[in-house]
Structures are given as structure tokens and as C-alpha cells.
Amino acid sequence: MSGEDMIKAEGICDVEDTVFVAVGKNVKEGKSVLSWALKSFAGRRICVLHVHQPNHLFSSKDGKLSGAKLKQHMVKACQELDRLRLHKLLNQYLLFITQAGIQGGKVWLEINNVERGIIHIIEEHKIRWLVMGAAAETHYSKQLSELKSSKAKFVCQHAPMHCQIWFTCNECLIQTRSMNNSLSSSLESLSSPEDNGGTKMRNHVGDGYEDLNILENASSPANKIVKVEIKGDYSPVHEAHLHCATSQPLLEEGSFHGKASSDERSRVEHAMMDAENSKQRAFEESVKRWRAEEDAMEAIRMAEVSYRLFKEKEDQRKEKEENFAKQKEGIEELKIQHDLCLNELQMIQEKKPVLESQITESSYAGKELEEKIIQAVELLISFRKQRDEMQIERDNAIKEVNRFRKLVQDDADEYCIKNFFSISFSDIIEATRNFDPSSKIGEGKFGSVYKGIIHHVKVAIKMLPACGSFSDSDFQHKAESLSRVRHPNLVTLIGICSESRSLAYEFLENGNLEDHLACCKKSRPLHWQHRIRIAVEICSALIFVHANDPCIVHGNLRPTNILLDAKFVSKISDFGVHLLISQTENSNNDDPEASIYVDPEYIDNGQFTVESDVYSFGVILLRLLTARPALGIVRDVKCALESGNLGSVLDSSAGDWPIEQAELLAYLALSCCEKDPLNRPNMLSEVWPTIEPMRDICKPHSDLNTSSQGSKGQKRIPPHFVCPIFQDVMEDPHIAADGYTYEGDAIKGWLYSGHDTSPMTNLKLDTCDLIPNYALYRAIQEWQQQF
Questions:
Q1: Could you give the C-alpha distances from 261 to 100, 268, 404, in angstroms and in order?
Q2: What pLDDT score does 556 carry?
Q3: Can you count the helices (H) and strands (E) in the chain?
Q4: CA distance 523 to 527
Q5: What is the per-residue pLDDT for 261?
Q6: Name one GO biological process term (predicted).
Q7: What are the pLDDT digits (tens) for 469-509?
Q8: What share of the chain is helix, strand, coil (3-state, %, to 5)?
């Protein structure tokens, strides 16, 4: 240890009352050791002990860089940067101690060998108490009971006896070395080897002279310490250790006096001195060679750095030139704009007197117009008041007329339905114009269908096969039983003719489902929301007829037997018709398309069951999804589902199908089409809970008039005509206190049911009073008259 390797300290007053804590460059582990010391020695002064290893970039021991090749200011700058990092590290530890409320100090030493540096500081300051790490925190475990760090082991073995040392890891005490050199753990078995003396050499790169001092350590006769000092102005001090322990026992004192004479001792000493000098010269040559190699490498590196700096400055110069050119162009453009603005300003100043005179004239004219407008507004207010009063009277009269008209119509319809059950054959001939082919609207398994008017009511007349085993009374009895089965999604039977075996049903304007799926007879394709709603309505009707006592099985369910009314509400026709014809006619089916909807079980045993309708419903559901022909539709949909490409078979004319609902309907339809009736789902307990929630995603009938195609002639409802509660076109609009307009009956029912909040905003209403919205009512009337 030389004079250049000075121990530097700050804030140390009394070593006897100070606990020294050895810390390294790892701040996290250093703070862990400090935390243990602060907790264990509360109230005592804490001093941070640190051994700094200088940057090897300027180490003459390793032959790195020479001061003669590297500029002096660069060397000093790098050394200063290294010292700044050292002080920054120590200040972090001191700040940690200060935050704990403890007065702290710091002591540090610059040396290559950390553990020897710690020993040197202990000896120099006569340190009595020292805390240091036993191992890295990554080695910590609850079973850790011995030192893992080589530095900790070295300090434990070589520290002076007057210093007591605590070894910690992860804020836990691992071992303690007391002042009598005893350990509190299994380290007692470790021996304390003698200090391995070595050859210490210090190099100072100077102006060309060297001062070599060779000292012999008297306390260690088997070893020699060679200290080489090469003095200079720029290079820091470094140490190297050359262990020169002899392998022969010739120098041992006892054996030397017993076996050799004085002449032999002199020759041996002379030979050893020659050997040491040879080793020293070889080492110096190695140092020179290392320094020359590093000089060459540094020259190459500096050349590369200089080239990079040159390129960067060249790029910066070009960039500045480009920016200067752009700024120059921008200044030229600003000058042109400035000249244009000056010209415009001059023109405006020339026109200013003319404009001022025009403004004066306009102000006079404005005052005159204001007076006229005030008079016109007053007149308009009086006319509007008279108009509103007359409009109220007119609206009240229209409401009364409509009410009486509805009462008369309802009474007429009820009278027709009650008294219009038995129809004569002559009425049938007259309604069909003697079965004119132009009156024929369909033909199926159970006979032909004609349209006609009977007693001023438009009906659809179904002519059943004339032959059969039923008498007229049996036929009429069964038909009357079917007429009593009423459901919103079943076509109403309103008359029968036993003589001609014919049935009169209500007439539905929009034809059957098959026409819309096949887009024939100028029918528009149905939107996917309509299709889902139709599936829900068919399911509801089938559950109703199956639950009838006795149970009614349709037996001929297919798209041609599903009719659509003016609002595209679906209704099933021909239910129970197979009960009115003979078994022979019932089993006769020459239509291959119709046979696809028939349950395979019926083909085998000739018996219709509830599962037969479930099978037909499944095929219809697939038709609604794909609009493809029924033949092979089950196979196509199954393949699409297995390949994960259901969208390839969905009907694109129905709009953008929601994939999740479409897949759910497809799987449901395939389960209904199982060949084994036992594997088909139950309509009430399985199909209905699956399909009924989809009703919520369908728009109201009045908002989805026909389809997604929306031709120019389609009736589109303005959204402000629709009641937010009923979701239908308003007939008696009223304004509530929340500012929204509702159907009169809807908002009144809302308020009379105990609500005092807005149906739209859920905020409390200031008042429950309602104001008729006559302006909106007239707009709705005018809109309805256009269609």
C-alpha cells in the first residue's frame, strides 16, 4: 500500500463509537446490509466503508493505454467521471442513512483488490466493529449458515483480532466473528492461513525514468515483496501481485545453519537475486509489449471515433444547409403574401367610403323592415291562434269519426264471424266465379285454393277432395272443432261448406313463405330479423296446437302452408286438415319437394306424431337461414358447420346475419332433423327456451315493413313518428315534461301505474301534465296519406 493509495474519509469523529458497514457497487444489496446495521445498532454512528476498483482502461498494470498516446485532457476527464460515479454511489448510501435519522460518515479507498483494501482500512483506522455481506442475495435461504462470498471469507480469516465482524445476507445475520476470532456458526472449523505475501508493483508512466525499490519482508522469510514504482504525471496507481514463494526448503533458518556453509549461503543468495532480476526484466518486457498492443488498438479506435464525428458533423452541416434553404424559400413566400395583403388592404381602403354609405342606407332599410316584421308577427300570432283553435275542433271531430267507424267495423266483423259459418255451394261458385282459373291462387296435397269474396269479406277457399269416408255431419263436426282452435299465428277458419267439402279461411295479403324465400311472383326477400321472428311465431303456434286437448298434429308443415299478413306476421294454414280427408288421400303424395318436409318415420309407419311436426319445423328453419332448396339442405348446413364456415350457406339477401344467433339456430334445426324421433328436442322444454329470447333482437313489425332491400316504393317510418314505449307509429302524440313525445295511451298508462320518472331518461318529472302535439299529429297524418 503506497502513498498514492490514500484512504479518504468524511464525517468520522470517534472510531470507538462508530459501526463501519462495508458496501459495494450493488446499491440494493448495500442497502440491505445498511438496513440490518441500522436496526441492530440503533443510536450508534454509522460509517459507510467502500473499496473502489479504478477503471482498468487506464491501468498500466494491464498494459492498457499510455499517456503518451492518449491526450491528457481525455485521460483526466475519464478519471474525473469515474470519481463522480464513486461519490454518487456513496452519497446514495449516506442519503439512506440520513433518512433513517442517523448521522453517517464515509471512508473509501481506491485499490484493485477489494478484500485487501478492507483489511487495510481496518488496520489503518483501528476499526472495532464491522458489518459486511456474507453472500449475494440470490444465494440466500433460510438454511444459509456459512459464508458464500470469497471476500467475506478472506476478511473473516485475515482481519485483525481487535475487530468484531457481523456477516449478513438479505437483512439476516448469518455469522459473527468476535474479537477472539471465534465464529458463531460452522465457520469455527475454518483455519486462518498466513498472509500470502506477494510481489507488489506500482507503475507510474512518466517522462522516461524509473525508480525501483526492492524490500524484503522480514516477517515472512519464505516470501519476498517486490515494490516497483514507475513515476509519472498522468497514470493512476495500480497494484499487481506476483507470488514468488520458493518450492525448496533451502532458505529455512533452521536447516540452513545445519547443512550449508557461509560460502554456499552467499552463492544461493546471489543466484536468487539473479533469478528475481530476470523475472523483473521479463515482466517489464511483457508490460511494454502489452502497452504497444493497446496503443495500436486505441489508435484504431480513435480513428473510428474521429471518422464517426466527422460524418456526424458533415450530416449536420448538410442538414443545416437544407434547413437554411427551406427557411429562405419560406421567407420569399412570406414576402409575396405580404405584398398581396398590402394590395388588398389598399383596395379595401379605396372602397371604404362606398361601403360606409351602403351601411348607412342598409340601417335605415333595416329599421323599416323591423317595423314591418313586428306588424307581420302580431298578425301571424293572431292567425295561428285562430288556426290552432280550428285545428283542435277538427282533430276532435276526426277522432270521433274514427271511433265510430271502428266501432261499426268491429261490430260488422264480429257479426260476420259469428253468423258466417255455414256456406252454401252456390256461395262458393259465386265467390270463385264458377272456379275460374284466374281465381286459383294455389294447389297442394289437400286440394286447390281459390280467392273470392263472400258476404263482402275477402276469403281464401280451399276445395278438399270430394271422395271420402266421412258423412256431411261428421265433416261439419270436425270442421267446427277446428274452427274453435284460435291463435294469433294460426289462419282463422271462418266458414265451411259440407256439400262441396270446402273450407273458407281469412285471406292473407302477402302470400306464403315459399314465395318470399324463392323470390318468385315479385316477392321481396325477407330480412333476417323477420325470419327469426317467423321462426318464433311458428314455434309458438306448434306448441299451442300440440297442447290442445285432443292434441292436433299438423302433418303437412312446409313454407307454402305458412302465410304472411299485411304486417308480415306469419300464420300456419291447413292445420288439422288431414283429419277431414280419408287415409288414402292423406297418404297420397306425388310432390317430391313436399316429401322432404315429411318425417321419415311417417313414411315407414304412416302415422303422424308430434315429432313429425318437429322434423318439418327443423327443415323450415334451415330454409329460413339459407333460402336454399330443401333437397340436400341438411347435408349442406352440417358440412358448413363442421368446417366452421356457416356464412357461406347463409342467405346474403337477408342482410348481415348475427353469426352467434345463426349458428345457434342451425344447430337447433339439425337436432330437429334427426332421423330417430327420440333424438329430436321437445318444442316446449327445449326449442322454445332457445328460440324465444331471440325475439328481442327483432324490430317491431311497423319498423321492418318487408325486407332489408328497401326499394324506393317501400314505406319507411320516420323515427320521430314512433312512440318510444309502444315502438309503433303514434296516433295520439302527447308531449311529457321530459320533452319527449309519446303515444297518449302509453304515457298515460306509465303515469297512472305509479311512475313519476321519465321512461327515456329515468329522471323525475317536474309535472305529470301532458300536452297534445298537434304539429306532429298533422305531420303523421300527411305522411300516412302519401301511401
A1: 69, 11, 154
A2: 86
A3: 19, 21
A4: 12
A5: 65
A6: protein ubiquitination
A7: 567 777 777 888 787 788 888 998 888 888 888 888 888 88
A8: 50, 15, 35
CATH superfamily assigned to domain 397-507? Phosphorylase Kinase; domain 1 (3.30.200.20)
Residue 496 confidence (pLDDT): 86
Q: Where are the alpha helices (DSSP H) in 558-697?
A: 583-587, 592-595, 600-605, 610-626, 633-642, 659-672, 688-691
Handedness of CA 177, 181, 184, 185 (dihedral sign): positive
Locate all alpha helices (DSSP H) within 127-228, ordered by sequence.
Answer: 150-158
Helices 659-672 and 633-642, axial angle in degrees (round to 10): 130
Pairwise CA distance, residues 623 & 630, whole Å? 7
- CA–CA separation, 625 vs 627, rounded Å? 6
Q: Cβ distance 159 to 128 under 8 Å? A: no
- Burial group, residue 204, by CB count within 10 angstroms (0-12, 13-18, 19+): buried
Regions of the chain with pLDDT less than 50? 3-4, 59-70, 185-260, 412-413, 415-420, 700-714
- Neighbour tally for 218: CB within 10 Å: 6
DSSP state of 598: S
Domain 8-194 CATH (choose: 3.30.420.40, 3.40.30.10, 3.40.50.620, 2.40.30.60)? 3.40.50.620
In this structure, what are the phi and psi dihedrals at residue 588, rounded to the nearest 5 degrees?
Answer: -80, 115
Cell of 455: 258476404
Q: In the block, which residue shows the cell 474479537?
A: 179
Phi, psi dihedral angles at 561 (to 5 degrees): -100, 10
Query: How many CA atoms are closer than 13 Å to the CA of 522, on its beta-carbon side?
Result: 1
- The amino acid present at 239, given as its one-letter code, is E
d(CA 121, CA 12): 13
Report the alpha-carbon distance of residue 157 to residue 190 in Å, rounded.
8
Q: Which three cell numbers stand for residue 753?
A: 301505474
Cell matching residue 265: 549461503
Question: In this structure, what are the phi and psi dihedrals at residue 450, rounded to the nearest 5 degrees?
Answer: -120, 155
CATH number of 719-785: 1.10.10.10, 2.60.120.10, 3.30.559.30, 3.30.40.10?
3.30.40.10
The answer to whether 522 is annotated as binding is: no
Which pairing describes strands 225-229 and 493-497: parallel, antiparallel, or unpaired?
unpaired
Position 513: which residue type? L
CA distance 573 to 491: 5
The single residue listed with the C-alpha cell 435461504 is: 141
Instruction: Give pLDDT, residue 777.
Output: 87
Q: Are the C-beta atoms of 201 and 228 separated by less than 8 Å?
A: yes
Please give the torsion angle defined by the CA atoms of residues 214, 217, 221 and 224, in that order, rounded to the nearest 10 degrees: -40
H runs (alpha helix) in 113-248: 114-125, 150-158
Q: Which of 511, 431, 372, 391 is nearest to 779 (CA)?
A: 391
